[in-house]
């Protein structure tokens, strides 16, 4: 239908549409989606702040990750790549995601490179806030699960 349209599955801070727009990403459509057989984790090391981790997904056959299927354009992908520090911190892969109507779509997503991962990290509370802003895209159960994630107050690093 439209030339140069790209499907992107956002599961971390990019679930905050306002945040994406501040990155100059054009969001033509945003809809709830689920990535089966993966689990959300915060194991991507911050370069400067010890103990701080950013969102990632890991394979888990009994879990699923809720997020947003975003339709954007190829030019906007460049801005997302810069924000995600692709290809240093994250690699891109294509995966099938499920929509609420039961259909599946293929979308690209970011998965952290093993060299950037470490166990035992926690997100900053402002990073988690971006995920929580997607409340109307995710189930109430998933939202409550996100609210329970132990995070680090930004004030600890000021």
TrEMBL record:
<dbReference type="InterPro" id="IPR036568">
    <property type="entry name" value="GGCT-like_sf"/>
</dbReference>
<dbReference type="InterPro" id="IPR013024">
    <property type="entry name" value="GGCT-like"/>
</dbReference>
<dbReference type="InterPro" id="IPR009288">
    <property type="entry name" value="AIG2-like_dom"/>
</dbReference>
<protein>
    <submittedName>
        <fullName>Gamma-glutamylcyclotransferase</fullName>
    </submittedName>
</protein>
<feature type="domain" description="Gamma-glutamylcyclotransferase AIG2-like">
    <location>
        <begin position="8"/>
        <end position="121"/>
    </location>
</feature>
<dbReference type="Pfam" id="PF06094">
    <property type="entry name" value="GGACT"/>
</dbReference>
<feature type="active site" description="Proton acceptor">
    <location>
        <position position="84"/>
    </location>
</feature>
<dbReference type="InterPro" id="IPR017939">
    <property type="entry name" value="G-Glutamylcylcotransferase"/>
</dbReference>
<feature type="binding site">
    <location>
        <begin position="8"/>
        <end position="13"/>
    </location>
    <ligand>
        <name>substrate</name>
    </ligand>
</feature>
<dbReference type="GO" id="GO:0003839">
    <property type="term" value="F:gamma-glutamylcyclotransferase activity"/>
</dbReference>
<keyword id="KW-0456">Lyase</keyword>
């Amino acid at each position: 239908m439209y030339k140069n349209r790209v499907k992107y599955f956002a599961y971390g801070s990019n679930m905050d549409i306002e945040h994406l727009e501040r990155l100059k990403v054009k969001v033509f459509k945003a809809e709830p989606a689920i990535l089966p057989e993966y689990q959300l984790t915060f194991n991507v090391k911050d370069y400067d702040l010890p103990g701080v981790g950013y969102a990632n997904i890991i394979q888990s056959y009994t879990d699923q990750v809720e997020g947003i299927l975003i339709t954007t354009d190829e030019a906007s992908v460049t801005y997302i790549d810069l924000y995600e520090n692709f290809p240093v911190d994250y690699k891109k892969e294509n995966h099938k995601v499920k929509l609420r109507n039961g259909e599946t779509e293929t979308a690209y997503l970011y998965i952290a490179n093993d060299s950037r991962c470490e166990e035992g990290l926690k997100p900053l509370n402002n990073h988690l806030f971006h995920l929580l802003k997607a409340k109307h895209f995710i189930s109430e159960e998933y939202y409550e699960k996100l609210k329970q994630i132990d995070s680090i107050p930004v004030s600890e690093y000021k």
